[in-house]
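Dear Dr. H.,

I hope your travels went smoothly. While you were away I took the liberty of generating a structure for the chain from your last submission, since the lab meeting agenda had it listed for discussion. I wanted you to have the full record in hand beforehand rather than looking at slides cold. The sequence, exactly as received, is reproduced here:
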Amino acid sequence: MKKRVVAILMAAAMAVTVCAGCGGSDKGKGGEKASEDGKKKVTVWAWDVEYNIPVMEEAARRYEEKHPDVDIEVMEYAYDDITQKINTNLSSGITDGLPEIILSEDANVQKYLQSYPGAFRDMKDEVDFSNFAEYKVKVLTLEDGIYGVPFDIGTEGLFYRQDYMEQAGYTEEDLTDITWDEFIEIGKKVKEVT
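The corresponding predicted structure, in token form, is as follows:
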């Protein structure tokens, strides 16, 4: 039986495009799983019905439109269940039943890669990683391999009342390239004045 490979993915449209047919056992042509209608079967484990699941379903729909020989099934699990299933199966060497694609939080990626060498597919020759934030690619990198695709970058936003800032004598430039300590001091002064 061919060794099954699981791709840790954090990318939506790219994830499915890059990984359709990533892993596989002996269930279909070329070691890929086959669905009942003969299509290549790709299983995705994801969590979060508000974001991850809908995004992966949309990515699957778009991929299947361009690749009618592929059937992608997005399966919802609780995040802790995905982590437990991956660890249990890979620790015991049982790869049957694992998906081709999983979504994972950054904190677990290196744990998986270091604990289960050879279990994950190197994606560096399949994806142009220059299109992604370097720090997100670094999380997926071990030695010379890149074992996933960034899903999101967890961007945060800072919103402030411009009128309060101006009233306290600050401009947008005063908030550019500053430390948290500097930001806190500005906040204290704005509060005092306004």
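Two observations you may find useful: The first strand starts at residue 7 and ends at 9. Residues 1-5, 8-31 have pLDDT under 50 and may be disordered.

With kind regards,
E. W.
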